[in-house]
Each structure stands twice: as C-alpha cells, then as structure tokens.
Specification:
The protein is an alpha/beta fold and 156 residues long. Helix content is 28%, strand content 14%. The protein contains 4 helices and 5 strands. It has a 3-stranded parallel sheet with strand order 1-2-3, covered by helices on one side. Strand 4 and strand 5 form a beta hairpin. The longest helix has 14 residues. The protein is globular.
C-alpha cells in the first residue's frame, strides 16, 4: 500500500542517501585516496594522512591505493557511507545497507555508523543489523506510521 505524507527537515539537517546498488561510475577508476584528495562539490579534499585516518574508521586503510571498482561490495558500501559522512550529511538514509555483505563487512559498516554523529534511518531485512538501533517505526496498512518497541518482521 502506498503511504503519503510530508516530511520537513530542520534548517541544519543535510540528508545523504545510500543505495544498495553502489552505482557510482564516476568513482570506478579512481583510488580511495584519490577520491578523498580531490574532494567534490559536497566536501573538501584532504591530504593522504587525513584520508588514511578516515579510511581507518571504516577498516579501509589497506585499500587506500585500490581503485573503487575493484573493491568488494562490502568495501564499496563502507566507503560510500564514509563519503556521505564527509559531505556533511547529518541524516543518513540507508536502503538495505548490509545487503550482500559478508559478516566482516557488515560489522565494519556497523562500527563506522556508531561513530557517525547524526541520525541514521535504515530500511533493512537484516535482523542482526537492527540490534544497534534504538527506535523503530512501522508503516501500517491503514497508512499510519507508528513507533514500535522492536522491529516488526511479519505483519499479518
């Protein structure tokens, strides 16, 4: 059932969206350090030491000189969340962030998100991943959105 409504973001809220497809053709041939060094319209560039510091938080320092296109799906996911964070996003909207990740990559992503200083909203079917979240909402069939005390996996 389709849900309708309006969401208003506060003046200092900057959303960042993560998609499970990791479709970023502009990054494929660039190394992680190169991407961080150059910056983009949403974030300033940084030197190698700064890049490695940020990559370490997401357990990616060993891949600093590796091209984005050669990373595993989990490594790409962690790097894309890091880019969102560095872009100044204060609200992360995550669409199935652990989809197709191995356990080590999912754990590294979770650790990186713990250090994120903002709000994380995730859509997930991963019961393990939800254990670190403290609030849950349910989109009911009557178009109401309600807070629930724990994730709801089966709505009959």
């Amino acid at each position: 059932m389709k849900h309708n409504g309006v969401a208003r973001l506060g003046a200092r809220v900057r959303p960042g969206h993560f998609s499970q497809t990791h479709d970023r053709p502009e990054l494929v041939e660039k190394t992680l350090v190169e991407i961080l060094w150059r910056g983009d319209e949403h974030r300033s560039g940084m030197d190698r030491a700064g890049s490695m510091k940020h990559l370490s938080r997401y357990e990616l320092s060993a891949q600093g000189d590796q091209r984005f296109g050669t990373l595993s799906g989990g490594q790409q996911a962690r790097f894309l969340v890091l880019l969102l964070e560095l872009s100044g996003a204060t609200l992360l909207l995550l669409d199935e962030p652990t989809d197709n990740l191995d356990l080590a990559s999912a754990e590294a992503l979770e650790e990186g998100l713990k250090a994120f200083d903002g709000t994380v909203i995730a859509v997930t079917h991963d019961r393990w991943f939800t254990r670190s979240f403290d609030r849950f909402v349910l989109f009911r069939s009557d178009n109401e959105v309600v807070e629930v005390p724990e994730p709801v996996w089966d709505v009959r």
